[in-house]
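G., before I forget:
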Amino acid sequence: MSSPMSAIASHPNEALVLAYAAGALEPRLALVVSAHLALCSHCRALCHEAEETGGMLIDAMVPVAMSDDALMQVMARIEGKPAATAIPAEFDQLPPMVRDAIAASGKKMRARKRGVAALDLNGIDAKGEGRLTLYRIMPGAAVPHHGHKGSEITLVLTGAFADETGIYRAGDVAVGAPSIHHRPRAEPGEVCFALAYTDAPLAFSGLLGAVQRVLRPFGIGG
Ligand SMILES: [Zn+2]
């Protein structure tokens, strides 16, 4: 069952990958899915298939060909994209779209508690309503025990963490339902970088509850 190409055990559900392929996800959640795709050939294939099918539908619905000029403009935009700002070397091992988001955010890692730091990536889009945070958890350190008022999707980028629901390694996606109450702890050995997207504020049960932010729910996944 486990392919030699990939040890990824927990994937985002298909609906999320298809919604990503259709361009229907808000930018922060789209970043989490695209970073997973960078690490997961299985979901990448699913996404390509969906894009091809979707592309055929769009071709059938839009008979007016895109002008050569429009194409040139798109290419110019892509090629004219400014080089990313230099970011700390500790991020070198992260997927390129995550590094780009870090550079674009202009934010730095901030210590949350012993062994846990976080970088706020909410600034990557003004319209998005979820919260996107890059966590850095030192081996053996734990994120404070917390529950959720909404859903949380966490993508492991490096290392691994474990919580009450299982162990998650690089590429794995952990989905925390609103009812879950957990305390993710990084496994020994490697620094764990993880990208966490929440659709409503985390309800920290400890001291950090005092600093939780008030957010609007965003509505994906019911
Ligand atoms: Zn996958």
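The pocket of zinc ion is lined by residues 8, 11, 36, 40, 42-43 (CB under 6 Å). The two ends are 31 Å apart (CA to CA).

More on Monday.
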